[in-house]
Design a protein that fits this description.
By secondary structure, this protein is α/β, with parallel strands linked by helices. It contains 14 helices and 13 strands. The longest helix is centred in the N-terminal third of the chain and has 22 residues. The radius of gyration is 27 Å and the shape is elongated. The N terminus is likely disordered.
Length: about 350
């Protein structure tokens, strides 16, 4: 998200130069994804020297008649107006952002400020090794801990507790809670202004908690000036554009994902034991489908199998014969690993199924 906002800020800067020829009814601006982008013909003309205003002016002198002679259709004037209004609104929002409260730029004689976005493996390793006697550190992230993701699958079935796989960021870098000019902010990064060296952020959602007026609280926005910036915000889970994944499936990436899986698993075991429930419905409730044969999918499938063999057979004996696990993989499980490891994993999985 941070990088996409960063790209938009650069595009908006170029929009200031483009605005000089938009009113001359030349090649229009096309709206894509809420941003103002040049049409392909204009991009081809502007790419070699997009910051050269003299070249932009010469393009602006081409009138509609010359386009008509070439057989190129022009866009009505209202399209120019909409695009110009969009760029103007973005410029106004940037001006509003600059007036936000927050941490101002460091002064001469003060320690340089390093801003870190994210609390994943890369950012936490960086935070742990940074010399806080030389730098002040500010970390901005929507979560206040680091997750040991290889152990996350074990928490879904109770082999490990959730606190065993999460480490608070203040323990990794104590300066964030003890040093006067170092801070951790629980927030999402909205935009990065590389020209003014500022990060614009918004506090995480309070999930609809009402304020004193009975209305949901508005998120608080602020800015942080930086001398050095480290972007380690991670990535989104890949769905391969399969419809329904985000709406109906569980990801296994965060602690709250593991909590939801564990809750659903235990809830379905309880539901399946209710009297008079049809056999088909019981089997549906107890059918666990794991999509993806990578390290996470294989590890989670193994944990589920152990859970079924050791716990379900003892504590839920009435439904033990109806629960089963299906692992779906388009290619080969653990395809990024050595052939020997893949073969060993297949043998172990088959042995669990046989047991």
């Amino acid at each position: 998200m941070a990088m996409s906002r960063f790209g938009r800020s650069n595009l908006k800067q170029s929009g200031k130069a483009i605005r000089s020829f938009m009113t001359e009814r030349t090649t229009p601006l096309t709206e894509v994804g809420g941003s103002a982008l040049l049409s392909p013909s204009s991009l081809q003309a502007l790419t070699p020297c997009s910051n050269n205003t003299k070249t932009v002016s010469s393009i602006g002198q081409m009138n509609q008649m010359s386009y008509g002679l070439r057989g190129i259709n022009t866009t009505p004037q209202h399209k120019f107006q909409q695009s110009a209004e969009r760029i103007e609104e973005d410029s106004e929002s940037e001006s509003d952002d600059r007036r936000l409260p927050g941490l101002e730029a460091t002064k001469p004689g003060e320690k340089p400020r390093v801003v870190v976005l994210g609390t994943g493996w890369a950012s936490c390793r960086f935070l742990k090794g940074i010399d806080t006697s030389i730098y002040d550190v500010v970390c901005i992230s929507p979560r206040n801990h680091m997750v040991f993701t290889p152990l996350l699958a074990s928490t879904c079935v109770g082999t490990l507790e959730f606190r065993s796989v999460a480490e608070p960021i203040s323990r990794i870098q104590s300066a964030l809670s003890t040093a006067p000019n170092s801070h951790f902010y629980l927030a999402n990064c909205l935009r990065i202004d590389s020209d003014s060296h500022e990060v614009y952020s918004e506090t995480v959602s309070n999930r609809g908690l009402p304020n004193e007026h009975g209305l949901p609280k508005e998120p608080y926005r602020f800015k942080v000036a930086y001398d050095k910036l480290v972007i380690a915000a991670g990535a989104e889970p890949l769905t391969f554009n399969i419809k329904g994944v985000k709406e109906h499936a569980f990801f296994l990436r965060e602690v709250n994902n593991a909590q939801e899986i564990r809750k659903r698993l235990l809830l379905n075991l309880m539901k399946a034991d209710n009297p008079g429930l049809p056999v088909e419905e019981r089997k549906r409730l107890l059918h666990c489908v794991v999509v993806g044969g990578g390290p996470t999918g294989v590890e989670f499938s193994g944990e589920l199998s152990d859970f079924i063999i050791k716990d379900v057979h003892e504590q839920y004996s009435h439904v033990k014969d109806d629960i089963h696990v299906t692992l779906i993989e388009a290619n080969e499980i653990l395809s990024s690993f050595d052939v020997g490891l893949r073969a060993t994993a297949m043998v172990r999985l088959y042995s669990k199924i046989k047991d």
